[in-house]
Amino acid sequence: MKPRDRINRLKKLYLIMVAVGFLALGILAFTEKYISPGPFKTLLYGALTLFLAGNILLHIGIRCPKCKAILGYVIIFSAGKAYECPRCRIKFDEEMP
Ligand SMILES: [Zn+2]
What we know:
single chain; mainly alpha; 3 helices; about 60% helix; elongated; binds zinc ion
């Protein structure tokens, strides 16, 4: 498997967590008056946790398969496509040995 496949899969998973958490927060905001406070609080914290965890994992949860450098910033914020690990220079599009 190429490192990029692994990275993209993780990235997709974390983005889904953020999206689902965000969506749940939006839905909760509109349904607050229909839900009793107890379950509402549980759902709210659940959605918040999912949203925050997804965000955090996007930043620190994507690591270089070789040197374990944290790649979140490189992957998310690089203007172009990131081609290699900034620390060990492993190429993301080459098969792992
Ligand atoms: Zn590396």
